[in-house]
Every structure is written in structure tokens, then in C-alpha cells.
UniProtKB/TrEMBL annotation, chains A, B:
Positions of the Pyrroline-5-carboxylate reductase catalytic N-terminal domain: 3-85
Start and end residues of each DUF2520 domain: 120-244
InterPro entries according to UniProt: 6-PGluconate_DH-like_C_sf, DUF2520, NAD(P)-bd_dom_sf, P5C_Rdtase_cat_N, TM1727-like_C_sf
Annotated organism of origin: Abyssalbus ytuae
Protein name as it appears in the record: DUF2520 domain-containing protein
Amino acid sequence: MIKVVLFGSGNLATHLFRSFKKSSNVDVVQMYARKIASLSNFDVHRTDNLELIENADVYIICVSDDAISNLSGQLKFQNKLVVHTSGSLSVEKLNNKNRKGVFYPLQSFSKNKEVNFLTVPVCVEAQNEEDLKLLKQLAGSISENVYEINSDQRKSLHLAAVFVNNFVNHMYKIGNDICSENKIPFRILDSIIKETAKKITNLAPEEAQTGPARRNDKQTIKRHLSQLKNKNQKKIYKILTKSIQKTYGRKEL
Amino acid sequence: MIKVVLFGSGNLATHLFRSFKKSSNVDVVQMYARKIASLSNFDVHRTDNLELIENADVYIICVSDDAISNLSGQLKFQNKLVVHTSGSLSVEKLNNKNRKGVFYPLQSFSKNKEVNFLTVPVCVEAQNEEDLKLLKQLAGSISENVYEINSDQRKSLHLAAVFVNNFVNHMYKIGNDICSENKIPFRILDSIIKETAKKITNLAPEEAQTGPARRNDKQTIKRHLSQLKNKNQKKIYKILTKSIQKTYGRKEL
């Protein structure tokens, strides 16, 4: 049984708590938050007092990036395994008085959306073999996809995730805007959106690329640009078309 | 039984042929291609001679956009229902000697990837009620999602699809490049890619947006920009971050 204390009460803390609860290998012995009221929905020992943190094998900090370093410095114990859960912060941001590690689940969590943690990759990092083994065990108790990823790699991974999640979602937003302006139900695009994501499981993105930019179909590109009245959308269309053309060795627009 | 002749031998013609074959309401009586050899894999009457086109209820032209107008002009019969399958061409591009229509399945088809046509939306357009009814029946025999979409709407839909398919796939490509440069298996991103697409079924893209640009986290944005050595990637990161910030009323970078 791996004993865990969770710090935080946000999306990630919530999803981790629920997933650990389902595992027979993990015991969440306590949760901490600055305001104890924010923990009222969690059926577990709760505290807002750092003096009263209970004994555990792993202390998991699930607070905002800005607050991690400070919180790890305020802990009253020493030489325990303390991990943060941030994609973009180095393990070094944790205070030196404890053994340090990272437990980073790569997913975009929304509060009211249930997540199947089994498919969420968890990236772990530690500073000695034993801690690494423990984190792998802990991650393996909730996820089928556990990766050892160092701090530099993790930063790059987080950046890659901005492209494939944040920016992709913004493409959906623009698609949605174009549909509403033309009284087309956005739902028509559901199927192609899902298929585009699914394709990538079997094909490299390079092989999966289709469309006017890929085949350098200048007539269609020109027509699309004349259709776009919104300057911002036009700019994005141009720069991405150019980038695709470059990728596949075509001449610029 | 709706009798159909298919013109073309590419991806779309192949997928349509297979789907029509499975339906008990449709009979593909013949396929035409300029080179009869390209039809050798189709178990159906084949011809490369426009003089020998058989009688049918609907003639479906699945050739490249550039060739549609010309081919429709070369047909030897009159006052039949001839449709094209292009997302970006107006129904008017078809020759006037026949009744005109559009049968546009909105999906990005790859040759060797089986497609479940049931979930592919088919957008139909015709110039009289009877033809429209027939096209809806035909579309309904292979798909659960049939929409009546006029030529202007279809052009916008095609443009929206460029954003949610072509440009999204390019985001995957950049994510993939960042991963390989840092020796990270791209597979780690599979789960977030699928989840991002799935979310959109229940949430508006505006509600689903997360990330540093959305919450105007300038520190992370700055760090990401310093990580990006590739000028093109940097430019894309900047313009999309700016666009997200604008969308949610934040100040510019």
C-alpha cells in the first residue's frame, strides 16, 4: 500500500483523488489546502495546517505553478519524497530539504468531465532509483501508460501539448465561427474532427496531411482567402498554408 | 432500387462504391474512368467510353475539381440527374444540359483506410424537390447524417474543414517534430489528441479552451517562445497565442 498526501483542491487534485481511491494499491491518507472549505467534497482526512501533515510515502503537490516552490519550502518535514505535477516546471523548483520528483499526468482536465485515467500517460521523474521505482508503481496503479521523462523533455512535451491541444482547439473555434456565420450546424464537422484525431494513431502526421496547401492547389487557396473576411482568420490561414507548403517542399504563396 | 453510375476511380469513388455495394437500396450499374485499367479492382460493369454510359437515376462525378466541368459537358445524354462530389465547387459548374446536383461527403478519405460511411455527413443539393428527395434517399442509404446544404454554405463548410482537419493535422506535425527533436515518443500525445477531439462533442470550443494563452499566463508563454528555436514554429506559436488572447478579450503579447 503506497501512502499518499495530496496538496491542492483543483481539477488535477480531484481527478487524482478519485483515481487513487479506485486503486487497491494506494491509500490517500490526507489532503491539504490553504482553505479547508475547498476540501469539503473530499471524503478523507483534511487539513489547512502544514504542521499537521500525516506520514506518507509520497507527497503530491497539485497547486498552480507559481505556488509550488513556495509550498515545498514551507513543509515541516525532511528527506521525504515530494513531487510536483507540473508539465513546465523543472524538478529543481522543489525545495532541497526533501527528495524530489515529478508526477505529471499529460491531459487537459476539466472540472466536470470524468476522465478515464487508465489511458492518461503519466510522466515520472525522480533523483534516485528507489524513488523512481515507487513513482512508477504509483503511476502504474492508475494508468496503463507510464513514461520516465526528464525535466528538459517534459518542458518540450508540455510545449508540444500546447500545439496538439490548445492550438487545435482554437482551430475548432475558428471552424465553429465560420459555420455560425453561414448558418451551418457545427455538428456536421464532428465526424471529420474525430477522424482527424483517430488517423494519427496509425499514420504519421506527415502521411496524414491532405488539403489544398498539401497539394499546392493555388486556385482553392486563393478562393478560400477571398472568402475569409475576418483579418485574423485570414492571417492564420496564410501562415499555416505557407508552413504546410514549406514542410512538403512547395513554393511559398 | 436507385441506379447509379460512378465516374472516377480515386479515393472517393472507391469508398462510395464499397458503401453503395453494402446497401440494398442502391445498384451501381457501371463505373467510368478515362483509363479503364484504373478500374480493374472494381467488380462492376466498366467503361472508358462516354458513348456507352448505361441508364441510371443518378450520375455521380468523383473526379478532381478541375475536371468536373469538362466531363459534365462531354456527357452524351440530357435531362438526367448529374451530381458532383466537390466541397468547394458550386453546383453551377455542371453543364446545363442535365439536371444538376451535389453529393458531398464531408470527410478526408485516404486510399488504404477503411471508412465507416454511416458516420460521414453527406451534404446534398439539387435544383428541384424531386431530385433533392432522391439524393437524400441515396445519401441516407449509406449515411446516418444527411444535410441539405446550398453551394454558398458548402464553400464555407469546406473552408471550415480546412481549419479543423488540414490545419489541425499540421499542429500534430509540429507536436511530432518537437517530440522527435527531444527524443520523446509521439505516442505520449495520443491520449490528449483524442480527448481534445472528443471534448468538442459536448462542449463548445470556446468552453473547452485551456492553456497559457487562455489564462494569459505570460511567464509560460515567454518560456515557450524561448524554447522554440525553429522560426516558423515560433511565428505560429505567437500568432495563435495572440488570436486566443484576442478571442477571450486579453491584451496582446
